[in-house]
């Protein structure tokens, strides 16, 4: 029986008596009938060289550099799957690694064979900057090579195949370690640039400390956080397929500021072989630095890389530091040296020559500018001298001009005297010449007079011809006047026609309006009454009737106030109303208005006939006024000799009216009526009274 403890980067696979399949742990008590195998959990780089063919049948060699390790982060049973597929049946780590690599070769070769025939070779080359950084491929063509990566789908396909073995695909990153052994039992201290990674009895995972008391069944590994400087001379290719060497220096160290980073670093790299730690770290740094640098260099042009070296350096540093952080490392410094030409290329040589020539030319330009300034200064001094001389010459010439002006003024005065003399001489000559011309004009006038007399005789002979011409002119004028009169008549006809059309349209509109009124009332008699009200015909009839009986003394007393009157009016009222039927017949013939039936009686009954009973009188008054009875006053009590009728309504014009009619019935004299009207419009009251009278 023995107690076995695994290193920080190792696991134990125990099988045998009491274990159904395999038990995986960091520490175990192994019985004689059990078997215990150590295996590491390091992410190991693998180099695979494959032949591939593109969609356009271009064959090329594709060396593949990738890192494979246990997928302990996303798969809980990754260790079990790894042990079942690779650890079982092998007793050494080398045999396990060989089995892993054999399976990886099959998986990657199959994925490449399925992926490459789907893309043309040019697309694989030109789109390399868009490819995932998890798998790096190197392909060759015309002695020029470049690092590129397949699309994410290829990496995903490889990862899907690795999952069944408990493996995972990582970037090519390796860390450096410096483990040291500890005492069997006692207190262990680390140097200032070191940390302790403790595993074993009483520790669940890994304990990171600067000092620790080591107990039995515990392992203490010491690792250094000293920075490592790595120089690389990368052969890369730019976006425009130009190959070059990219010298760079990277300084990497363990991130000692975070315990999580220290624990991650110890889990990945701290083992039992201190001599190989630094070598492994160098391999890791080389893989990460070369991979990221090649990918980024292939995504930009050589001119951008040459002009923006600082930005490129910051971009490379960011990508490398991001990848190193997965191993608990950090990038301390990154420097990009001068770019160099590869064998057979002289691009940078010519760039340097171009810069050298540009500097020489600039120096020549500077010298020429200095010479030009000297020449300009000399010319400026010469110009100033010439300007001074010219100013002095001008002053001398001005003095000469003053003298010349005095001479010219004297000469001008002399010329004026000469001109005056010449003018007087010329004037005398003109006077003499004009007198001669006047005489010639008088003689010419006499000649013209004689000539006019001759022309007069000639014109008399021509008058006859002119008379004929005048006759023709008069005839033409008469014809023009006739045409003018015809045009005027046509204009008057047009105006009359338009007026007739306007009248026709007016009557047509009135006819349509009357038609709409008749249609709205659906009663010709009612529509006619409305039109008579609208035109004020009833008012006119009432006014004429009032004039007809003006001055009479009827026995009907009409009051505008609430006073009383009681004279006998039966006979006179009947006489008046007997005149209404002939009048209404005339109105009907002229206006087609049919009066109410109670107005169409013969000579035996007037317009408002003296009713034999009070009920008839009430009905007639309501019909005449066209108002509504109030408080049931339209009904007369049986055998009553007196009655009061109250009416209310809206008269023509929109005025509100209240009417009270008091009636007294006597068999001998008939009905005696007293009427009182109330309205805000006095004229309305007068019309109501006149309509009854």
TrEMBL record:
<dbReference type="Pfam" id="PF16381">
    <property type="entry name" value="Coatomer_g_Cpla"/>
</dbReference>
<feature type="coiled-coil region">
    <location>
        <begin position="433"/>
        <end position="460"/>
    </location>
</feature>
<dbReference type="GO" id="GO:0016192">
    <property type="term" value="P:vesicle-mediated transport"/>
</dbReference>
<dbReference type="InterPro" id="IPR027705">
    <property type="entry name" value="Flotillin_fam"/>
</dbReference>
<keyword id="KW-0472">Membrane</keyword>
<dbReference type="InterPro" id="IPR036013">
    <property type="entry name" value="Band_7/SPFH_dom_sf"/>
</dbReference>
<dbReference type="GO" id="GO:0005886">
    <property type="term" value="C:plasma membrane"/>
</dbReference>
<dbReference type="Pfam" id="PF01145">
    <property type="entry name" value="Band_7"/>
</dbReference>
<dbReference type="GO" id="GO:0006886">
    <property type="term" value="P:intracellular protein transport"/>
</dbReference>
<dbReference type="InterPro" id="IPR012295">
    <property type="entry name" value="TBP_dom_sf"/>
</dbReference>
<protein>
    <recommendedName>
        <fullName>Band 7 domain-containing protein</fullName>
    </recommendedName>
</protein>
<dbReference type="InterPro" id="IPR009028">
    <property type="entry name" value="Coatomer/calthrin_app_sub_C"/>
</dbReference>
<comment type="similarity">
    <text>Belongs to the band 7/mec-2 family. Flotillin subfamily.</text>
</comment>
<dbReference type="InterPro" id="IPR032154">
    <property type="entry name" value="Coatomer_g_Cpla"/>
</dbReference>
<dbReference type="GO" id="GO:0030117">
    <property type="term" value="C:membrane coat"/>
</dbReference>
<keyword id="KW-1003">Cell membrane</keyword>
<feature type="domain" description="Band 7">
    <location>
        <begin position="204"/>
        <end position="371"/>
    </location>
</feature>
<keyword id="KW-0175">Coiled coil</keyword>
<feature type="domain" description="Coatomer subunit gamma C-terminal">
    <location>
        <begin position="615"/>
        <end position="692"/>
    </location>
</feature>
<dbReference type="InterPro" id="IPR001107">
    <property type="entry name" value="Band_7"/>
</dbReference>
């Amino acid at each position: 029986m023995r107690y076995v403890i695994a290193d920080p980067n190792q696991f134990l696979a125990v099988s045998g008596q009491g274990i159904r399949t395999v038990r995986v742990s960091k520490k175990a008590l192994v019985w004689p009938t059990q078997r215990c195998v150590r295996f590491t959990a390091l992410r190991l780089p693998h180099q695979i060289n494959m032949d591939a063919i593109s969609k356009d049948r271009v064959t090329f060699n594709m060396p593949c550099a990738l890192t494979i390790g246990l997928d302990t982060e996303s798969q809980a049973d990754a260790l079990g799957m790894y042990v079942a597929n690779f650890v079982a049946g092998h007793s050494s780590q080398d045999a396990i690694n060989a089995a892993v690599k054999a399976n990886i070769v099959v998986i990657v070769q199959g994925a490449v064979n399925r992926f490459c025939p789907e893309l043309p070779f040019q697309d694989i080359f030109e789109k390399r900057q868009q490819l995932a950084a998890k798998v790096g491929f190197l392909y060759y063509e015309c002695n020029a090579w470049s690092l590129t990566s397949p699309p994410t789908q290829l990496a995903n396909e490889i990862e899907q195949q690795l999952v069944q073995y408990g493996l995972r695909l990582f970037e090519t990153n390796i860390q450096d370690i410096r483990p040291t052994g500890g005492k069997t039992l006692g207190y262990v201290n680390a140097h200032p640039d070191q940390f302790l990674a403790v595993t074993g009895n009483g520790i669940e995972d890994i304990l990171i400390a600067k000092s620790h008391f080591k107990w039995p069944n515990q392992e203490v590994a010491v690792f250094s956080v000293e920075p490592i400087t790595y120089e690389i001379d990368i052969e890369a290719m730019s976006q425009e397929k130009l190959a070059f060497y990219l010298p760079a220096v990277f300084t990497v160290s363990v991130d000692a500021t975070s315990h999580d980073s220290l624990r991650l670093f110890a889990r990945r790299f701290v083992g039992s072989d201190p001599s190989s730690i630094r070598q492994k770290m160098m391999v890791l740094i080389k893989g990460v630095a070369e991979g990221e640098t090649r990918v980024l260099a292939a995504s930009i042009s050589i001119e951008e890389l040459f002009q923006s070296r600082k930005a490129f350096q910051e971009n490379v540093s960011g990508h490398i530091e991001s990848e190193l952080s997965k191993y608990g490392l950090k990038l301390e410094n990154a420097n990009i040296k001068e770019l160099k030409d590869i064998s057979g290329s002289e691009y940078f040589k010519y760039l340097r020559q171009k810069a050298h020539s540009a500097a020489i030319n600039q120096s020549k330009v500077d010298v020429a500018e200095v010479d030009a300034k000297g020449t300009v200064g000399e010319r400026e001094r010469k110009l100033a001298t010439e300007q001074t001389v010219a100013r002095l010459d001008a002053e001398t010439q001005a003095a000469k001009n003053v003298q010349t002006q005095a001479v010219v003024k004297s000469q001008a005065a002399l010329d004026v005297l000469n001109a005056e003399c010449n003018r007087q001489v010329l004037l005398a000559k003109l006077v003499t010449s004009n007198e001669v011309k006047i005489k010639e004009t008088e003689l010419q006038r006499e000649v013209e007079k004689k000539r006019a007399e001759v022309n007069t005789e000639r014109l008399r002979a021509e008058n006859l011809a002119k008379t004929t011409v005048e006759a023709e002119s008069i005839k033409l004028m008469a014809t023009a006047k006739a045409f003018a009169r015809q045009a005027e008549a046509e204009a008057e006809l047009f105006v009359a026609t338009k007026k007739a059309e306007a009248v026709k349209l007016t009557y047509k509109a009135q006819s349509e309006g009357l038609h709409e009124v008749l249609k709205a009332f659906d009663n010709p008699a009612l529509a006619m009454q409305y039109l008579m009200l609208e035109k004020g015909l009833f008012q006119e009839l009432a006014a004429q009737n009032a004039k007809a009986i003006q001055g009479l003394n009827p026995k009907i007393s009409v009051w505008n106030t609430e006073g009383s009157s009681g004279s006998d009016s039966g006979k006179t009222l009947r006489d008046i109303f007997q005149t209404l039927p002939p009048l209404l017949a005339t109105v009907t013939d002229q206006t087609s208005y049919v009066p109410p039936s109670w107005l169409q009686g013969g000579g035996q009954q007037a317009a408002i006939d003296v009713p034999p009973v009070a009920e008839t009188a009430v009905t007639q008054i309501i019909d005449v006024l066209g108002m509504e009875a109030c408080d049931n006053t339209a009904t007369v009590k049986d055998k009553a000799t007196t009655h009061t009728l109250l009416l209310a309504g809206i008269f023509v014009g929109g005025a509100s009216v209240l009417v009270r009619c008091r009636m007294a019935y006597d068999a001998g004299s008939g009905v005696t009526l007293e009427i009182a009207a109330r309205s805000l419009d006095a004229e309305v009251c007068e019309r109501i009274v006149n309509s009854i009278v």
